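[Meeting: bench + compute handoff]

Bench side (C.D.) handed over the final construct sequence. Compute side (W.E.) agreed to return the predicted structure before the next meeting so the bench team could plan truncations. Sequence as handed over:
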Amino acid sequence: MSQQTTSNVDKVISNGVKKTNLLGFTPSNTAKGNLMGFTLIELLVVISIIGILASFSVVSLNGARIKARDAKRKADMVQMRIALYLYYDDNLEYPQCGTWDDEADDFGATAECYNGTLNISLTERVKPYMAELPIDPKNEGIYTYRYVSSANGSEFVLAYNVEESAEVQIIRGW
């Protein structure tokens, strides 16, 4: 029984038939006929394929980040609505701030009312309704939470923007 220590590629090359590998390249040989390893072209092809796949994954992850921020915004608004309902149960009115405007998309809600009056009303009381007000994940430009109430405190609007839509999202309570 003879010992077989050479690879199939060595056997094919030593028999005089030249074969290519899976990528279509011919393995390089040393002067003695032994394989040296991968060629520079093979390495460059593999590295470029990995780079292309990595760029696709980064692009798809960006969409997931946008959806995650939008989901957080919606969850924050649910928490705010519950806190405002609890406030109303105790005070028979919502925190009063801003100028109600039925014609505006966001009913006149402002970040100043959200960060000022609403923050004080819900977090800085003997019985706080929230430990702290949530803030928008981006918290810049149009991506801020806004609040307005009617003049008599019987209605409120929480307004916010999501990245997947150009329309202002509102939570309205009365």
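W.E. noted at the follow-up: Helices lie at 8-14, 40-91, 111-123. C.D. will use this when planning the next construct.
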